[in-house]
């Protein structure tokens, strides 16, 4: 199961179901993969409908009976203060405590957007507190669509390959 925002949803891709990083990761790992991506969502961001926080989507995620959940760190949480973001990360990781493997991904760096390092630190610390694996992605420089915010198909392929490689 991959839980995330517009990156996980494959925003702007012609064939998100096959070109998105989450699907590509599942193929690389030989997983049966369920993708739960909602644009503009995050740990503290509710998305376009206002209620698509990651934590609110956990019951549906758990209904699939996942052995592994990959949680994508989101830059949509940039406006949230550090304490509230840390609390939201802790709540989410507690809600999936019975899942055998939970992997938290850090955000990627976007040249036009600052603050990814703060989110990376907060998510890394939350994963450590929950004794879950953390994969930083700040070093990735992905090709972006014209909006400068969302990866191209090639960017999704690079993201999937990096996550698969770092998972080992």
TrEMBL record:
It comes from the Bacteria. Residues 2-157 form the SGNH hydrolase-type esterase domain. Keywords: Hydrolase. The keyword Hydrolase applies. GO terms for molecular function: hydrolase activity. The keyword Cell inner membrane does not apply. This is SGNH/GDSL hydrolase family protein.
């Amino acid at each position: 199961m991959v839980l995330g925002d517009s990156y996980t949803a494959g925003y702007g891709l012609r064939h998100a179901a096959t070109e998105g990083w989450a699907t590509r990761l599942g193929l690389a790992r030989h997983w049966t993969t369920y993708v739960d991506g909602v644009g503009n969502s995050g740990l503290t961001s509710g998305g376009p409908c206002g209620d698509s926080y990651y934590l609110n989507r956990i019951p549906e995620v758990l209904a699939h009976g996942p052995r592994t959940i990959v949680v994508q760190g989101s830059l949509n949480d940039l406006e949230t203060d550090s304490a509230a973001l840390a609390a939201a990360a802790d709540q989410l990781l507690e809600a999936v405590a019975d899942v055998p493997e939970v992997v938290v991904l850090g955000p990627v760096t976007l040249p036009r957007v600052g603050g990814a390092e703060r989110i990376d630190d907060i998510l890394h610390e939350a994963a450590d507190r929950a004794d879950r694996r953390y994969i930083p992605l700040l070093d990735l420089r992905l090709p972006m669509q014209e909006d400068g915010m969302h990866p191209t198909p090639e960017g999704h392929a690079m993201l999937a390959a990096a996550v698969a490689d770092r998972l080992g």
